[in-house]
Structures are given as structure tokens and as C-alpha cells.
Amino acid sequence: MTLSKKAQSLLTVFNNNGHQFPAVWQYMLPEEFSWIHVPAERIIDCANCNMVHTDGYRMDTKCCSYFPQIPNYMLGLALKDPQSRALVERVIADGHALPEGTVQNLSALRVATAEYVADRFGKSELLRCPFLSATGECGIYAYRGTVCASFFCANDHGDAGDSFWDDFQNVVRQVEVILSQRAMTSAGIDSAGYHAYLDSIVDRIDEMGDAETGGAAEWVRRDLFGEFFKNEVAFFEACADFVIENLESLYDIATSEESRATTMAFKYEKALERGLSDAQRKEIQCLPETIDHVVPVGALWYKLQLAARRLWEIPFGEGTVVLNPKASVGKNNADDALSKLYSDRPKMVTLSGNDDTAKPRRFFLYKEESDILRLFAEPVVIDEVLFEKKEIADFADARDFLAECLRKSVLIKADSD
To answer: How confident is the model at residue 179 (pLDDT cuts 50, 70, 90)?
Structure first.
């Protein structure tokens, strides 16, 4: 199989401040995305997962105890890659993919949410992603979905970081939904008819799963794929071809007037929710397309830009800033599993909780970072004079570090509680 140069360029990843995102995202998102200062997320190290050492996560799954939503065109791109083709073919054969991409049926969703409720995320073999290799490596890394590429168990900016990545996921996921529908229709399956059919069989939702494979029942796949049933690989590759052919206009397609008519199987989505217990329902993330209307991509993109701006704000010349009285900077003694993971960072800041029951948070520091925090032992104005001090002037990431400390409340306004 000979691929065009354009198609070949999509079978890889691109780097944004240390993050390896699917290459096609460069075309799915507006040009301004390359200007957004994405946080590096230096707290976590997926290659040496701290949750394995501190929270009992399985080494062969880590946080990949999750069934990912991979859009149809991404499955098609993965099928064009000899390294991932066999794995994707197996997932398709097990019935885990419908014309829109990989999906969970109600029975599989019940199992997953029951495990989440029981606090077995990262620890349960039942939740193991079907795209993982035997050793726990992602078999479709360059084609993984939004959540997989932007989930962090901890982040540099605390709650503000969580909000940023939530907004980021909402933008990319919405674009994925729209492009998967356009690709589906282009490949020969009408997206409106597809969703209408799903809505029409909500009274049979308990029958839609295959107990043996955990995927969709054969009758569901036969009805939804139509002439592509048993030839799903060709369908998904055709979806990828749609993206390749329209590579330079993907974001325009996602925000076009025509794409505002995006259809969703809202009755089916609600039936899935009703099929879960109250406790399980709380574990279901409400993405933009499941709240009874489709949120315009442009509105989500604007919200993301605001969230990114908030991450890096510092009160330049606006009053004084001081080390939080609840924070203490000391030596990293590398005397437990977590601190040993960060043994290359000789210092540590411990931030006490708001009450006696809250567990203190710890952040591990390089020497240069601890030297900067010493400047805030007494209230200091963040201004040009401060940035001329050797501790800050000699540290290339000083401004980012200050922003992170402010977001995590390690540094606070001097008149704050």
C-alpha cells in the first residue's frame, strides 16, 4: 500500500511544548493553536507513572483503564499504518467500532462505571483499553482520542490546569464529532440516518451488546454499516481519505454553516444514562454533544483561549505577593515512593490543607525553583526590579514557574487569607 506524502505526514505525532499530539490535530484546530502556551505538565511522568508507585495502578494499564472514543477517520488513518493495522482490525472484528468510531454499548458502560464507582480506575483488568499492547504500550499512539492525549492525573496549575484541559478536550472532541459525521456521510453512510436509527432502537438498548466480545451485537452492526458490513475496514479508510483530501480546511469544515446542522442520537444518549445507576451516572462526563444541543466550535475555542490566558497571568505591579503561610520549603529526603520518583529535584514545597483533615500537597522543586521561592519569604512586588534579580534572570522558565505557583496557591497576594 503506497501512501501519498500528505497521508504519510499524518501517521505520526507533532510536538507542542513536550506534548505529542496526533499530527492531524494541526489541521483540525485553528492556526492560533500553535500560539497557545500549553502547560508542559512537568509534575507527571507517564513513562514512570507515579500512580503505579503511590496509588496501586497496574503497570500494564496505568491510566489506560478506559475505553477510548476514537473517531472513524482516526481508525482509518491507523489502518493505513502497518504498525497499528492488525490491532485496529481486531478491535473492529470484536464489534467495538460503529460508523462514527469506537463506542461502548450499555453493558460495557455499566461494567466500566461500576469499576469507577468502586475506585478501581487504573487498577482493574476489566477496564483495560483494547488498544494496549501486552506490556501496556498504546498501539495507536499517533491516532489516540482527545481524552487519551490530554488527560493528566496531576498538573502544573492545579484547578486552573484542570479547567484548561477540560476546555481543550471539549474543543477537540467537538471537532472530532463533526468531522466524523462529515467523513461518515462522504464514505457512504448518512450521519443523520445513522443517528435516527440509534434513536429508534432505544427500547432494545439492553440487547445491543455482544456478551462474548463486549462489542456491539452483530444485528446492530449489520443495520448500521449496511453494505459495509463485513467490509468495515474499507469504510474507515474511506473516512480517513475524506480527512486527507480536505486536510487544509478541516477547521473551516468544523465551523461551517453546514456543520451547524450536526445531528446527534440524543434519545440514545439519554437511554444510556438511564440504564446506569445513580452512582454510575455521576461518573459519565457530559461532553458538549450530550447536553441536548451541539455547542458551536467557535464558542468552545474562545473559552479555551480565555482559560489559557488565565493560566499564565501574574499580578505584574499589582500589589505584593508572598509565600503562602501554609507552604514550607524543605529538602526532598526521597524517603517514600513519591519523593523517590522526584529524587532529581532536591527541594520540596509542602502545602497544608485548609483544615486538619485535608492531606498536605507536595510539589518537588529544582534548586533554581526553590531559590526563587525564597525571594517571597516577605511580601514582594512582581515587577521589573524583581525580574532583574539573579535568581529569576538566570532561570529561563521563571515566569512560567511563578504563574504555576500562583495557580497552585504556593504564592498568594499578601493581603489574601
So the answer is: very high
Helix (H/G/I), strand (E/B), else coil: 364: strand
Residue 156 dihedral angles phi and psi, to the nearest 5°? -65, -20
Beta-bridge mates of residue 381: 320
Contacts of 329 (CB under 8 A, 6+ apart): 323, 347, 348, 349, 365, 370, 373, 374
Region of 119 (left: φ > 0; alpha: ψ -120 to 50; beta: rest) is left
pLDDT digits (tens, 9 = 90+) for 345-377: 999 999 987 666 668 889 999 999 999 999 999
Tell me which H or E stretch contains 183. Answer: helix 158-187
Biggest CA–CA distance in the chain, Å, is 72
DSSP H or E segment with residue 93: helix 85-93
Taking the C-alpha atoms of residue 62 and residue 52, their distance in angstroms, rounded to an integer, is 7
Q: Looking at residue 229, what is its pLDDT?
A: 97
* Cell numbers linked to 204: 432494545
Q: What is the pLDDT of residues 63-109, one digit of tens each?
A: 888 889 999 999 999 999 999 999 999 999 999 999 999 988 888 88
